[in-house]
Design brief:
By secondary structure, this protein is α+β, with helices and mostly antiparallel strands. Helices cover about 30% and strands about 25% of the residues. α3 packs parallel to α14. It starts with a strand and ends with a helix.
């Protein structure tokens, strides 16, 4: 006999197998001695009431039923120089998962990655954090594994209609991730574990005959008869190609510039921009769990917040409980920050992006060229008409302003949260996880007015939803500007570019995904489209 059960229990009972088993016995009517196995299908934390609950969906196996744990396997095939090659530009989630899917179908993936391997990336990241030395091709965004490698590793996605989410998670488990990512409502891996998983994926690709070339930045495409016949790297070396997947990520500005310069279809798209907000984790725990300190049976609390301000969305993004704030710039003389956390999420601070939607109308014409009322600073890059790169120009302009305001050495502008809402510069700043250092700046003077006004209103609303959120114990640290791409590289229903018949734009950089899982799914879907097209010939 197998019974399904949905149950809500205290964190203490959820953490105690014997107590939990006894409660399941009571709920199902199956004698305790007759329970063979309890298989957890889904788990989430419910903090809506005063007493926090762990909600679980389980299968209960009695003695006369056998539980067999699924063994995760993939049928990767050995490929060689005779196999059809798929050239993949970029070794982020879209590129790596596309490469693995190639191997399942006997296609040979050849990955060109502008950055370095994970181990080499660590050295460049350390140089940026400690000395303010930026390598534009090897940093928190560029290199093996992409921006997700050194992050919280959040795997939650709403893109379930786009592809096989479970398959993507199983691929990560096969390469070393904890099996709980299949169970947890908001799964994550952690920056301490992701690099090894990425290395394991690389080893799979190489062991089955695929290729990965690091330090290879694609700078040009050779096009003949509406097809890319070769790509040219920074050294002038040319790589012939038959089919190309473009998986370059949301920060590869040079790729967007190439498309625009050569009149291939791209378009400006909405994105979001704002700040990182850093609270003491204990404060977020108290707000979410209604007690302090939090129970030892509960993980660091997270939150998700949204507001509508005059028709404009403001929302939390990439919330990192027990995390740190990092410098995520990819271009000299720009300042970008992001959040990350390890698997234990044990930093004493929590941080989240709080960002405002930036619509195409915000940067598409001279009449909406944004100014800061406090300084009168204009953003001339906005006077672009219908230029598809106008959003990119806008993003660059604000990133440069933050770099200058921070002292031009990757220190970050910062302001206490309540001071920002009141329009006051902070005389002192709080302790922070941002190691490059902070400079007290009034964000009302360096962000466009439509962003600051939306943020101020949203913070007041957030405090009504989460009492204690609006406090000077929290700080704004900026700039958070890489939530998604400001450019979409066009593709048709067959996932091909409309002007380049053998090019498949994928993932965040092409404007079709937003995170590790959705990017991975998007890369896989493009390979499946190629396979389907090949079978139909």
């Amino acid at each position: 006999m197998i019974k399904s059960l949905e149950i809500a229990v205290s964190p203490e009972i959820a953490a105690n197998p014997e107590q939990f088993k006894r409660l399941v016995s009571q709920k199902t009517g199956i004698k305790l001695s007759e329970i063979n196995h309890i298989n957890i299908l889904k788990r989430s934390i419910d903090g809506r009431s005063k007493h926090v609950l762990i909600r679980l969906r389980v299968e209960v196996f009695s003695k006369d039923s056998k539980f067999e744990k699924e063994v995760i396997r993939f049928d990767y095939k050995k490929v060689d120089e005779k196999s059809r090659e798929i050239l993949i530009i970029g070794a982020g989630p879209a590129g790596l998962f596309a490469a693995l899917k190639c191997l399942e179908h006997g296609l040979k993936p050849v990955i060109l990655e502008r950055g370095k391997s994970v181990s080499e990336r660590k050295k460049d990241i350390a140089a940026l954090s400690a000395k303010g030395i930026l390598n534009e091709n090897s940093n928190y965004c560029f290199g093996e594994g992409g921006a997700g490698t050194f992050s919280d590793g959040k795997l939650f996605t709403r893109s379930t209609k786009r592809g096989d989410v479970s398959g993507a998670l199983k691929t990560l488990i096969f390469h070393g991730a904890d099996e709980n990512i299949l169970v947890d409502a908001h799964p994550h891996i952690g920056s301490d574990k992701l690099p090894k998983i990425i290395q394991n994926i690389r080893e799979t690709i190489l062991s089955y005959g695929g290729e990965i070339r690091f330090n290879t930045q694609v700078c040009d495409f050779v096009v003949k008869n509406r097809k890319i016949v070769a790509v040219v790297d920074q050294n002038g070396s040319s790589t012939p190609c038959e089919t190309v997947l473009l998986c370059t990520g949301h920060s590869a500005n040079d790729i967007y510039e190439w498309f625009h310069k050569n009149n291939y279809a791209i378009e400006a798209k909405p994105f979001a921009m704002g700040v990182r907000v850093e609270h003491p984790q204990a404060l977020i725990d108290k707000i979410q769990y209604h007690s302090s300190p939090r129970s030892p049976y509960l993980e660091a609390a997270t939150y998700s917040l949204t507001a509508q301000v005059n028709g404009r969305g403001v929302f939390s993004f990439c919330m990192c409980p027990g995390g740190v704030i990092i410098p995520a710039s990819t271009t000299e003389r720009t300042l970008v920050v992001n959040g990350m956390s390890n698997s234990q999420r044990n930093s004493p601070f929590a941080n989240s992006g709080i960002v405002v939607t930036v619509d195409v109308d915000d940067f598409a014409g001279a009449d909406v060229a944004s100014t800061s009322s406090a300084t009168g600073h204009k953003f001339p890059e906005l006077v672009e008409g219908n230029n598809p790169l106008s959003g990119l120009r806008f993003r660059e302009s604000v990133e440069k302003r933050f770099f200058e305001a921070g002292g031009e050495n990757y220190q970050a502008p910062a302001q206490k949260l309540y001071d920002f809402v009141k329009g006051k510069i902070s005389k002192t700043l709080n302790e922070s996880t941002y190691h490059r250092g902070l400079v007290s700046v009034d964000f009302n003077t360096i962000l466009p007015d439509f962003i600051t006004s939306a943020l101020r209103s949203a913070f007041l609303e957030f405090d009504k939803k989460k009492r204690g959120f609006l406090t000077n114990d929290a700080m704004l640290i900026g700039l958070e500007s890489r939530t998604s791409s400001p450019v979409r590289i066009s593709r048709n229903e067959e996932r091909r570019h409309p002007n380049l018949e053998n090019l498949y734009p994928c993932g965040e950089g092409a404007g079709y995904a937003g995170g590790i899982t959705s990017s991975a799914i998007d890369g896989v879907a493009s390979i499946l489209a190629i396979v389907s097209e090949q079978k139909s010939r």
